[in-house]
Amino acid sequence: MSWRGTLAVLAAALLLAACSNRPDTPDERAAMLAPHIDVLMPEGADGPVPAVLMFSGCGGVISVQNDYAAIANEMGVAAVIVDSHAARGIGRMGARLTVCTAARMRGDARAGDVVAALAHARSLPGIDASRLALIGWSHGGWSLLDALTFAADGTPPEGLDRMPGDALAGVRSVILVYPWCGFLSRAHGHDLPGEPPVFALLAGDDVIASPEACGNLFAEQNAAGARVDWQVLDGVTHAFDAPEEPFDPRIRHDEEGTAYAHGWFAGRLAEDLLDATH
């Protein structure tokens, strides 16, 4: 190959790399996610129904999301399970090695999934776009907090080319279950919006996602004008509501804690999505 040919190949490779690393538009991110979004509708749904969008922990979608989805469906609420991992080809082992170690798909990058998934949900004919809630576990909670800060200041999340002005349209509440509030969270140093309100359930014996770190962060955010309500469930660990989590001495399934979390979640849906006075 001539030197001109070599330069042409190199230029093409550099152009391809540049294109592959360019930010997504919100529509492109939604198209990437769409095949990996599971929409579970309530049985016998007649007309548009409210929906709760679900974002798993760092290990990916597991039975926990289906457990909460069943609760939502029984109440007449659609469950929209967003599998950010599958959309990127991240399997269970890859998730443990890269996502759970913050080497890949941190909260600021996954925040773009929140924005895109909301736009996708609002486009579905069976969903009432004016009655939406978000729930995230652990890494999913981190992602939701980051998404809220991006929406508050109009900055596009990592990997998106812009932040739509209606990014949080229809969202009535944000629900966090043992969210990760560590130093990488964008919520340190960036304000949450005054709306929608945030509700968090923290695990008292959590050594993975510190309840103290979250409590301090939430207190700071409330002082700045956010609306965060949180409570600490004593005696439970991280992922206490996940019966099939792999062996980890830091994690312990707790049936009573799980029942409490399920009831707390149902109460939030009833008040935030089903109360006619809301």
UniProtKB/TrEMBL annotation:
It comes from the Bacteria. Keywords: Hydrolase, Signal. PROSITE patterns: PROKAR_LIPOPROTEIN. Residues 70-150 form the Peptidase S9 prolyl oligopeptidase catalytic domain. One of its GO terms (molecular function) is hydrolase activity. Residues 1-17 form the signal peptide. InterPro entries: AB_hydrolase_fold, FrsA_esterase, Peptidase_S9_cat. PANTHER family: DIENELACTONE HYDROLASE DOMAIN-CONTAINING PROTEIN-RELATED (PTHR22946), POLYKETIDE TRANSFERASE AF380 (PTHR22946:SF9). This is Dienelactone hydrolase. It comes from Glycocaulis albus.
